[in-house]
Design brief:
Elements (H helix, E strand, L loop, with lengths): L1 H8 L49 H14 L13 E5 L11 H19 L3 E5 L1 E2 L3 H14 L4 H4 L1 H15 L2 H9 L9 E2 L3 H16 L3 E11 L4 E3 L4 E17 L2 E7 L10 E4 L13 E3 L6 E6 L11 E4 L5 H10 L24 H14 L3 E15 L7 E10 L2 H12 L4 E3 L4 H8 L5 E2 L1 E2 L9 E3 L5 E3 L15 E2 L3 E2 L1 H5 L2 H4 L8 H6 L2 E7 L3 H15 L6 E7 L2 E3 L15 H8 L1 H10 L7 E3 L1 H23 L16 H22 L3 H30 L1 H22 L4 H12 L18 H23 L8 E6 L9 H8 L1 E2 L9 E5 L2 E5 L7 H26 L2 H6 L2 H27 L4
Parallel strand pairs: 1-2, 3-4, 9-11, 15-23, 22-23, 24-25, 26-27
Antiparallel strand pairs: 5-6, 5-14, 7-8, 7-13, 9-12, 10-11, 14-16, 17-21, 18-19, 18-20, 26-29, 28-29
Helix pairs in contact: 3-18, 11-12, 11-16, 17-18, 18-19, 18-21, 19-21, 19-23, 20-21, 20-22, 20-24, 21-22, 21-25, 22-23, 26-28
């Protein structure tokens, strides 16, 4: 009941506006006068706003109901029939198994800021949400459930298992979507998509058929990343490399004079060796090239081949060649026509050579090394041997390179088009220096393995007939025959990246020519982490250009860094540095988390974040709240146009001039994706200039009353109105709460974005800068003398002939300076910026004691300087001392110099005891 009452009186509920359902609405109930020259497009309400706000801002009470109100009123729903210019961002689809982590919160904050600003600028702004079916991860989740029941997917069969996955998806999947609401994501929920929904499935089948017919999809036996636990091929991005303790053994191949020594970390694969390779220019082995040597532990001989892939400087300059279990060896085998012998099954169990058959690969490794050692074939052993080993990102099983029959995309022509789109300027990469990484990838891309040995995913639409026929079936075509007639569909499904590569256009209705596709494609910005530029960005570029007749999928690729802990290290659960952003949102509010993330977002650069930074952002939100509350209590208003500048004080003109410069600065930073800089600019303008200076200076004006107070109340209302609108895209909740209370408007979400009107007053800015310097200097002096901030001191101000004369009342109020009185005796005089401030400290400090204290501090600083100078002048010391030690001494010397200058100034300003 209390919350409903507060929402009503604080402006969160519309005043005088009827309920609106699922449609775009104006930010005002009816036409009202425009504001003045600064922001003439600002939204206004005739309804008098409430001047009351709770004494403290409670995000937990506000954010949930406020977000639901935004959604119910259709603020985020985009209209394909609108004549407004379109602005589109499709969300990088999170996994259906996932939950919100700081990386999501980071990128979502930036995308939300972009789309909220564009909506306020008058664009038909679409931020389209959705989820990826996450083939391996989701299948693993359901298989784990089955394992708890003592079953496997094979007990259910394919159809029943897939139905079980759909049930899991409906019950448990999409947790992250609710968390996105908690963050404040302004997405169009009516357009939510899923990579396995009917429309996207049709898009997948359509493009597969098109690629197949254009001979850009083929089936071949190649080396792939194989997970013996998940029993499927996996993509490069699903391989995590870790430094593992292994072993490096050197093995002697051959007999007598015809021997070679090879080193390997995977001794078990020697059972599948079909050659030893050396460099063609290596004189040590030229006599062996073309000969056959004995392969230990087997009854086979293998040839010695010459191949330029071999580095003669590395190890012995000879390498074992196992074409079926290593991608480089496979390439050598192709060049030399070598046989490929598979020695392991899909579970990484040895399948050849009697003594080792049936052993797991790791058991076989130690057993084979023991057998070689007994024959005197082990030349050297190194344990532990730390080296980089690929692991399945889903289950952490060690990856096994494996020769396998798979489906592939011929990427050469597609990659060429993806590279050309960036080279000719149709797509811009931001920051520009990331373009090299993009070109390094697309210009050297290998054919893409798209088949996965899973049951959950888009099944490959290819049927095999009884006579060896291979038929690819499109979405509107019937299979060529039944199983009873000997026809079988390929059992594999497509790589998840295949469907997510269609995301920018499949989500808008392709292959149908829908109004959404016509209005919102191509999308404007793809904002994503630089870590998936190779795997997702390049695939979307290839598919978008191919499917959409050369039209790019997005005009700008804005690459972000990754979120790190406060020390710049990768967050991880094992090290205890992983953070659940929901914990921080619950404690500090979503705005605080968003502002912290945005303030660290320099393009392409990793983002360190710590809890103390979120606390600081929470303090900023509270500062905005308290300052607006003060303004409302003192009559700040947005009613009517701005007064004529001739009626304004220099303080009023200064803050309006600074406001307009901030508007222009923030716009420039947005257009350059400089989120950290725009957030910092807004922080310092709002906190330092509006709250710490203008609000404080206005107190004197309000107390004086009259026309000057009326003018300043209107200026303060204008400044807060525009500042809240500028802040809204990054901190949406507190700004909407305050803006509706201040203006009586329906919601800042649909208010106009502030315009740079060109209002500038450099003279007023110089005047207030002078005022600030006086106040800052005297405050510093007071602090140096140990005076309490609220302690009043008699003072004489000499301001005549300076621009400070009109500000005497404000100076006295801010500095706690009393009138001088009859017994005034100036004990300290400060000449500042052409003015003189004389203070009578006789009743506030013991001058003699203060001089004694400062003299002691001065002696200590001078002693420190002598010691540091002596060390830096000692050549012998400098020759031996580490650089960091010398740097510390230089820092000590600089600090001593600063202390001496500061203390001496304080002594000079004190009267003689």
């Amino acid at each position: 009941m209390f919350l409903t009452s507060w929402l009503s009186h604080s402006g969160l509920m519309a005043r005088g506006c009827p309920p609106l359902q699922n449609k775009r609405v104006s930010g005002q109930c009816r036409d009202t006068p425009k504001l003045g020259p600064v922001t003439e497009n600002a939204q206004q309400q005739p309804t008098a706003p409430s001047t009351e706000l709770p004494t403290q801002y409670a995000p937990a009470d506000v954010e949930g109901p406020l977000y639901e109100r935004w959604v119910e009123r259709g603020y985020f729903a985009a209209d394909a029939k609108s004549d407004k210019p379109a602005y589109t961002i499709v969300i990088p689809p999170p996994n259906v198994t996932g939950s919100l982590h700081l990386g999501h919160a980071f990128q979502h904050t930036l995308m939300d800021a972009l789309t909220r600003r564009k909506r306020m600028q008058g664009f038909e702004s679409l931020w389209l949400p959705g989820m990826d079916h996450a083939g391996i991860a989701t299948q693993n989740k359901v298989e784990q459930q089955l394992a708890e029941e003592g079953k496997s997917r094979h007990d259910l069969g394919r159809e029943e298992f897939v139905e079980r996955v759909w049930q899991w998806k409906e019950e448990y999947g999409g947790k992250i979507l609710g968390q996105m609401r908690r963050l404040g994501d302004g997405v169009d929920w009516d357009r939510e998509r899923f990579t396995m929904d009917e429309g996207l499935s049709k898009a997948v089948q359509t493009i597969f058929k098109k690629l197949f017919d254009d001979e850009l999809i083929y089936r071949a036996e190649r080396i792939i990343n194989w997970c013996p636990r998940c029993l499927t091929a996996i993509s490069d991005i699903e391989v995590e490399y870790q430094e593992d303790d292994g072993e490096l053994v050197s093995i002697k191949y051959g007999e007598g004079d015809e021997t070679l020594v090879v080193a390997t970390t995977r001794a078990e694969t020697m059972l599948g060796d079909t050659a030893v390779a050396v460099h063609p220019d290596d004189e040590r082995y030229k006599h062996l090239v073309g000969k056959r040597i004995k392969l230990p532990l087997t009854d086979r001989t293998i040839p010695v081949v010459a191949d330029t892939h071999v580095d003669p400087e590395f190890g012995t300059g000879a390498v074992k060649v196992t074409p079926a279990h290593d991608p480089n060896d496979f390439a050598i085998g192709q060049r030399h026509g070598l046989e490929s012998i598979t020695v392991m099954n899909e579970r990484a169990v040895i399948t050849v050579h009697g003594p080792f058959e049936g052993l797991d690969r790791f058991e076989a490794r130690s057993t084979i090394v023991a057998a070689l050692r007994s024959q005197g074939r082990i030349v050297a052993e190194k344990r532990p041997y730390v080296h980089s080993v690929g692991h399945c990102s889903r289950c952490q099983t060690t990856i096994e390179p494996r020769l396998s029959m798979q489906w592939w995309v011929k990427v050469a022509p597609l990659a060429q088009a993806a590279g050309d789109a960036v080279r000719d300027g149709r797509v811009a990469i931001h920051p520009a220096d990331m373009s090299k990484r993009y070109f390094d990838w697309v210009d050297n891309m290998h054919d893409w393995c798209i088949s996965r040995q899973l049951w959950w995913g888009h099944r490959i639409p290819v049927w095999y007939g009884p006579e060896g026929q291979v038929v690819c079936v499109g979405p509107d075509e019937e299979p060529p025959g039944t199983e009873a007639e000997g026809w079988k569909q390929d059992p594999d499904v497509l790589d998840t990246w295949f469907s997510s590569g269609l995301w920018p256009f499949s989500t808008l209705g392709w292959p149908e020519q829908t109004p959404d596709l016509e209005k919102f494609y191509p999308t404007d910005v793809l904002l994503t982490g630089h870590d998936i530029i190779f795997f997702w960005v390049a695939r979307m570029m290839m598919f978008g250009l191919y499917a959409m007749d050369g039209e790019v999928p997005f005009r700008t690729i804005a690459l972000t860094g990754l979120v790190r802990d406060q020390f710049g290290k990768k967050m991880s659960k094992s090290s205890g540095t992983a953070v659940d952003p929901l914990d921080w949102m619950n404690q500090y509010g979503s705005d605080a988390v968003r502002f912290t993330l945005a303030r660290g977002a320099n393009p392409g650069t990793d983002v360190p974040i710590g809890e103390d930074w979120v606390q600081a952002s929470r303090n900023f939100a509270n500062k905005i709240w308290n300052a607006t509350r003060f303004a409302l209590m003192n009559g700040a208003t947005v009613e009517g146009p701005l007064p004529d500048p001739a009626e304004m004080s220099a303080t009023d003109r200064w803050i309006l001039s600074r406001l307009d410069k901030t508007v222009a600065e923030v716009d420039a930073f947005y257009d350059d994706f400089q989120f950290a800089k725009l957030s910092d600019a807004l922080y310092h303008y709002a906190w330092d200039e509006v709250f710490d200076w203008y609000v404080e200076l206005s107190k004197t004006t309000f107390q004086a009353g009259g026309r000057g107070a009326e003018v300043s109340r209107r200026v303060l209302g204008e400044v807060l109105d525009v500042t809240l609108r500028l802040l809204h895209p990054v901190v949406p909740f507190v700004t909407d709460t305050l803006w509706t209370t201040l203006t009586g408007g329906e919601s800042v979400v649909i208010a106009d974005w502030p315009a740079d009107s060109g209002f500038r007053d450099d003279a007023a800015e110089r005047e207030i800068e002078t005022l600030q310097s006086v106040i800052t200097e005297v405050r510093r002096f007071r602090a140096d003398q140990g005076l309490q901030p609220g302690q009043r001191v008699p003072a004489r101000l000499t301001l005549d002939g300076t621009a400070l004369a009109p500000h005497e009342a404000a100076i006295r109020q801010l500095l706690r300076l009393q009138p001088e009185g009859d017994a005034f005796a100036a004990t300290a005089t400060l000449p500042v910026s052409g003015a003189t401030v004389a203070l009578d400290l006789s009743g506030t400090i013991d001058v003699a004691a203060e001089r004694k204290r400062l003299a002691k501090d001065l002696a200590a600083a001078e002693k420190e300087k002598v010691q540091a100078t002596a060390k830096l002048g000692n050549e012998a010391f400098l020759a031996k001392a580490p650089d960091d030690v010398v740097d510390k001494i230089r820092t000590r010397l600089a600090k001593a110099d600063e202390d001496i200058a500061r203390i001496q100034t304080q002594l000079d300003r004190l009267p003689q005891a």
